[in-house]
Design goal:
Elements (H helix, E strand, L loop, with lengths): L1 H26 L2 H38 L4 H18 L5 E7 L5 E8 L11 H8 L4 E4 L7 E10 L2 E11 L11 H4 L3 E6 L2 H4 L4 H11 L5 E4 L2 E10 L2 E8 L19 H51 L3 E5 L5 E4 L23 H10 L6 E9 L5 E13 L2 E10 L1 H46 L3 H29 L7 E4 H15 L4 E7 L5 E4 L1 H18 L4 E12 L2 E10 L6 H4 L18 H11 L3 E6 L5 E8 L3
Parallel strand pairs: 16-18
Antiparallel strand pairs: 1-2, 1-5, 3-4, 4-5, 6-9, 7-8, 8-9, 10-11, 10-14, 12-13, 13-14, 15-17, 18-19, 19-21, 20-21
Helix pairs in contact: 1-8, 2-3, 10-11, 12-13, 13-15
Length: 648
């Protein structure tokens, strides 16, 4: 029944619209035709002009937020969000490019779609560059208006000083209008966005003539241009004055319908009949929609109840300790696993009663932001029987039932900590064994030299020669004493916290110790260009890292070759870093091996090696806020690059 009425009403509605069309067409005169085109030009120029003005302002507001970001990482994140926003809400068309430049307008980060012309952010004139360096916004066409691509540049000011720019290059107009959005209202017309400057385009060009026509009509917004009607809309953005010009299609004389003479007598009926039918159709559709909504609400209510039961089951069965509490520590809800620890809202306890480091956990709660999962680090959790287990705590502040609560997730890492300690113990045993082997070799050489000097002293034929040999023996003994002191100093870890040290001095000490552990046919060459850069690290950990890298290089070269160690400084987007490179001439590695070399207990050495050396190296680098890279290919050796942050 509903379908029949719908179809009948739609047919009557179409017939009514057709009658209205006949009525309007029959009454149209030349004067009304001119008025129609004038209205079209005025309305479309204003509509499209306001839309373009909105687009430019909206892009400018987004770029301004990116330029105002407090850190480079935040700028890059907001730039990616802006690009995603543009991709989602705008038709990218021929050209879209956005990015960040430094103070010399060199690109740091860019996101580009479309034509290559989008990828050039450099201001096209010294005047524009000077404007940006003064902290002012630049907006204009690229290639002096020959291109339809516009460029919008916001300066990045840090403490009042120009430090870079954020730019956006985009095509605001194309052959079909404003990125294709307004093709349905053109009806053969066209629009163009111009900078309000006749000299820019030339007085004899069509653009120049249109701009002169605009100035002559003063307060009016339309004028006749040849056999077309031109509409104008002016606006100013960031100091640049624009004119949106809409040109209608050429005038076409319309036919005047002389038939259906009765149409004028029933004009009121013809006009209001489709309206009445439309209202009736809307009422019927509203009834149908309400019935569908009622069914959908019922279905969704059942679905929500089902989801609520599933989430409750998931909350109670999750194999982690999950607690919901407020910022004051009052426990609101907990899952079943928490009952193993005696944590319960019924006991009237606070979450702080179960945390060993109460003040640290309380401080982290007070500083956390909204709707953001934060890792609090490691804590001791007190079980009901008094036993303390190690946990990793993460919390998120959220709103539920009109109030803010904290959901905390505690992961038991006791077994992981035990395994980690075993890992370090195994690595230290391996290092001690290697060190003992090297010391035994060195002391064998020392004793041989002492025996040789003593034998020469026994066979000397005068006291002066014997005294010379005894002096040599004393020098050898003193050298052995200094060697032992250096090894002991580097082997014991008495420092509780890292202290600033010169990177080249640490490296030189580590090379001296590593050299004593190398086979006779392995040589270490050292080059430094770090300019006295300091790093914040425990000396023994740095030496352990270097020994592991050199031993790994020696074994890769089958204990014969040259290890090249170089230190320098590297400036990155994240700051200044001390750069350490260790390169060997060994067999090299393929991509598969490179993905696994830093895993504990992974080794490419058959029946020897615990596979802990490079894992320890990576752990030392990460503990000190650094980065490690490996560059290798089969048959081309291997180079490890380590970056450690500079200590100011």
């Amino acid at each position: 029944m509903f379908k029949f009425f719908n179809r009948l009403i739609i047919l009557l509605f179409i017939a009514g619209l057709a009658s209205i069309g006949i009525l309007i067409a029959g009454r149209e005169t030349d004067e009304s035709l001119t008025d129609k085109y004038s209205t079209e030009a005025s309305g479309n120029s204003k509509l499209i002009g306001r839309f373009i003005e909105h687009i430019i302002h909206e892009r400018g507001d987004n770029l301004k937020e990116v330029a105002a970001a407090p850190t480079p990482d935040e700028m890059a994140r907001q730039l990616q969000q802006y690009a995603s926003f543009i991709d989602k809400h705008y038709n990218l068309g021929d050209c879209f490019s956005t990015g960040i430049t430094d103070s010399g307008f060199e690109i740091i980060k860019s996101i580009t779609y479309g034509a290559d012309d989008c990828s050039v952010p450099t201001p096209r004139s010294e005047e524009a560059a000077a404007r940006i360096r003064q902290g002012k916004v630049y907006l204009g066409y690229m290639d002096a208006g020959k291109s339809s691509n516009m460029i919008l540049i916001y300066p990045v000011m840090r403490n009042g000083v120009f430090s870079g720019a954020v730019y956006d290059i985009f095509t605001v107009m194309d052959d079909s209008g404003v990125k294709g959005y307004w093709s349905t209202v053109y009806r053969g017309g066209k629009s163009e966005l111009l900078i309000d400057s006749v000299s820019r385009y030339g007085a004899e060009t069509e653009r120049g003539q249109l701009l002169r026509l605009k100035k002559n009509i003063e307060t009016r917004t339309t004028a006749k241009f040849g056999n077309r009607q031109a509409g104008f809309y002016e606006f100013t953005v960031h100091g640049t004055k624009f004119v949106l010009i809409y040109l209608t299609e050429p005038y076409k004389r319309q036919f005047v319908f002389s038939f259906f003479p009765w149409a004028g007598e029933f004009a009121v009926v013809i006009v209001f009949l489709p309206l009445g039918l439309l209202i009736l159709l809307i009422i019927i559709e509203m009834f149908k929609v309400n019935r569908r909504l009622a069914d959908e609400i019922k279905e969704r209510t059942l679905h929500l109840n089902s989801l609520s039961k599933k989430y409750e089951s998931l909350f109670q069965t999750i194999p982690e300790y999950v607690v919901v509490h407020d910022k004051d520590g009052n426990i609101i809800e907990q899952n079943n696993k928490c009952r193993e620890l005696g944590i319960s809202a019924a006991c009237g306890c606070k979450i702080f009663d179960f945390i060993r480091e109460k003040e640290k956990f309380r401080a982290r709660l007070e500083s956390m932001g909204e709707e953001e999962l934060e890792s609090f680090g490691e804590f001791g959790l007190i079980r009901g029987d008094g036993e303390v287990i190690s946990i990793s705590a993460s919390s998120i502040l959220m709103e539920t039932e009109g109030r803010h609560v904290v959901l905390s997730l505690f992961t038991d890492i006791t077994d992981y900590k035990s395994m980690q300690n075993s890992f370090y113990l195994a690595q230290r045993r391996e290092a001690v064994g290697t060190l003992a082997s090297g010391m035994a070799h060195d002391f064998s050489n020392i004793l041989q030299n002492i025996a040789l000097q003593f034998s020469l002293a026994e066979r000397a034929d005068d006291d002066d020669k014997r005294e010379l040999h005894l002096v040599n023996i004393n020098g050898i003994v003193e050298g052995a004493k200094m060697y032992i002191q250096k090894v002991l100093q580097s082997a014991k870890e008495t420092e509780e916290t890292p202290i600033p040290r010169f990177g080249r001095e640490l490296t030189a000490t580590a090379i001296d110790i590593s050299g004593n552990l190398m086979p006779p046919d392995v040589k270490i060459e050292y080059n430094d260009s770090s300019d006295g850069m300091m790093i914040n690290i425990i000396e023994s950990r740095y030496i352990q890292m270097m020994v592991n890298l050199c031993q790994n290089a020696s074994e890769a070269m089958e204990k014969k070759g040259i290890i090249t160690v170089s230190t320098g400084k590297r400036e990155t987007f994240y700051g200044s870093f001390f750069e350490l490179k260790v390169k060997d001439t060994g067999r090299g590695m393929d991509k598969t091996e490179q993905r696994s070399i830093f895993k504990p207990f992974y080794t490419t050495k058959e029946r020897k090696g615990a596979g802990l050396g490079l894992a320890t190296v990576k752990q030392v680098v990460m503990d000190n806020g650094g980065f490690i890279e490996v560059n290798s290919a089969p048959g081309e050796g291997c180079e490890f690059t380590i970056l450690l942050p500079e200590s100011k």
